[in-house]
Amino acid sequence: MIFFDTSVIVAGLIEAHPHYEKSNPWLGKVVSGKEKGFISSHTLAELYSSLTTIPVLPRIRPDQALFLIEDSILRHFKIYDFKKEDYISVLKNSSLHSVKGGMIYDALLILAAQKMKATVILTLNLKDFLYIWSEGKKIIKSPG
Predict the structure, then answer these.
(1) Looking at residue 61, what is its pLDDT?
(2) pLDDT digits (tens, 9 = 90+) for 95-111
(3) Of residues 106, 87, 107, 123, the one with CA closest to residue 2
(4) In sequence order, which residues have a C-beta less than 8 Å from that of residue 71 and are 6 or more positions away?
């Protein structure tokens, strides 16, 4: 049961991405049914944002980004949908541990992975994820 950070999905979908070779096989495991893949509902918006702004040529149009999300992600991944209590819990824990800025989104993803009982959390932001949840060092991994 693998929880995917947005960074790994974007890298695995875009051949021009420098981490494509490491990330794409992980997506392939989920698409082929060899592994169960998980994301959060927040990941969908983050994916759309990343895909429509990533500096590749030709640019990915919004309709193409939607197609990639529907075809490669929605059909194959289970999605954790956040509740109000999840946000409150993450905000409180983050404030206690000096989590700042955009790392709050990583904290949300870690909570989603925990709720879904993921055995692996894949991210290209290893340093931030381990800062937020050092106890997860056995399951937080970078693809490769």
Answers:
(1) 96
(2) 999 999 999 999 999 99
(3) 123
(4) none
pLDDT of residue 10: 97
Give the single-character DSSP code of 123: -
What is the CA angle 44-50-53, rounded to 5? Answer: 140
Amino acid at the residue 91:
L
H or E, element range at 64: helix 62-68
- C-alpha span between 51 and 48 (Å, rounded): 5
Q: Which amino acid does the sequence have at 41?
A: S
Residue type for 102, please? G
Q: Which residues of the chain have pLDDT under 50?
A: none
User: What pLDDT does 99 receive?
Assistant: 96
The answer to whether 39 and 77 are in contact (CB under 8 A) is: yes
Give Cβ neighbours of residue 91 (< 8 Å, ≥ 6 apart). 104
Tally Cβ neighbours within 10 Å of residue 68.
19
pLDDT at position 144, please? 85
CATH number of 2-141: 3.40.50.1010
Q: Which two three-digit tokens encode residue 39?
A: 């994301």
